[in-house]
């Protein structure tokens, strides 16, 4: 079943499918009964999975790396899926729309992705408010504390010499609402960012944050996210600096700019262009970077094959009581079903031979199903 749904979803742009699936999950979790079922299926309450790191208690060691929920929109849903922690961001001081689309590409033959998102996010103010709302909601879920990491970065327009100010704004902005911080200087998609991995630039940012941190009534763990493309000397410099500024840990690793040993056709890779490669081909290198005693991985791919019509979300937006919801769900399902039949018949009609026409139909289908879900 999953392979069929996957094939279907792979007909559409990866970024849209991401929002589509997550918004479907949001819809499911809006209905308390379904959320409970999801939590029951995915949450493992087993004390052998619990971990203690830098003073934080993790329910389990499987978490979601930065970039999946950049804007802290899906914490409740990711909690229901059983994650031990979620790293939100990368958050920048000002909102950013990121790079031009398309900017996320699948490499199915390699079980990999290439992305050049460019820190698209709602900015620290909006994200802080969302986290505040989550913080207030959390007491209801007393038996399960989801650890939240705040991954922070700089805006594209901020020159590197002023980068420390951006990190400070994000650090202060999120301080009350995240459990730990990750300083991201390793994304390949913000021009010049990775130059901040150089020892002196890094020292300035990290020691400044640690000074602010030490002045707080209770400091927060501070980690640094590093690129997999560092040389051994650069890595040694970073480790030395980590001890010097008393970092709590390193997050290894961000995406790579390397393209070695891929099974995907070289022309396709060339056509995709710049971006960071993640997934299976990165595993070996990021494992090399990890010290054997670092414990757990900070990233984990989440594949959620849930597919329900976004029309339901739209219909439910107006429905507040149960009977209205029921009617809304019924009519939305019917509309979704009919819409699917319509497009599948159309595709069948053109027999997949007329490529431009087929593309037009898929495009229309894509718009009608996914546009409503994007950006929330
Ligand atoms: C679409 C996408 C967006 C990402 N955005 C961020 C980001 O904003 N900040 C960050 O530190 N890492 C980001 N990452 C990197 C991931 O957090 C992770 O470090 C990387 O994908 C390597 O791990 P993986 O191979 O397990 O996916 C992103 C990755 C992907 C695929």
Describe this structure in words.
It contains 13 helices and eleven strands. It is an alpha/beta fold. The chain has a domain at 43-289: Aldolase class I (TIM Barrel, Alpha-Beta Barrel). The strands form three sheets. The chain has a six-stranded parallel beta sheet with strand order 3-4-7-8-9-10. Strands 5-6-11 form a three-stranded antiparallel beta sheet. The longest helix is centred in the last third of the chain and has 28 residues, at 322-349. The protein is globular and about 65 Å long. Residues 292-329 and 367-376 have low confidence and may be disordered. Flavin mononucleotide (FMN) is lined by residues 65-67, 70, 89-90, 104, 113, 115, 117, 119, 151, 184, 187, 225, 254-255, 278-279, 282, 299, 301.
What proportion of the residues form beta strands (DSSP E)? 5-15%
Envelope shape: globular
- Rounded to an integer, what's the Rg over CA atoms? 22 Å
**How would a textbook summarize the main sheet?**
6 strands, parallel
Q: Kindly report the CATH topology of the domain at 43-289.
A: TIM Barrel
Provide the CATH superfamily of the domain at 43-289: Aldolase class I
Q: Give the strand tally.
A: 11
- The helix tally amounts to 13
SSE arrangement, N to C:
HHHEEEHEEEHEHEHEHEHEHHHH
Give helix % range. 40-55%
Low-pLDDT segments? 292-329, 367-376
User: What number is the mean pLDDT?
Assistant: 83
- End-to-end distance, in Å? 28 Å
Bound molecules: flavin mononucleotide
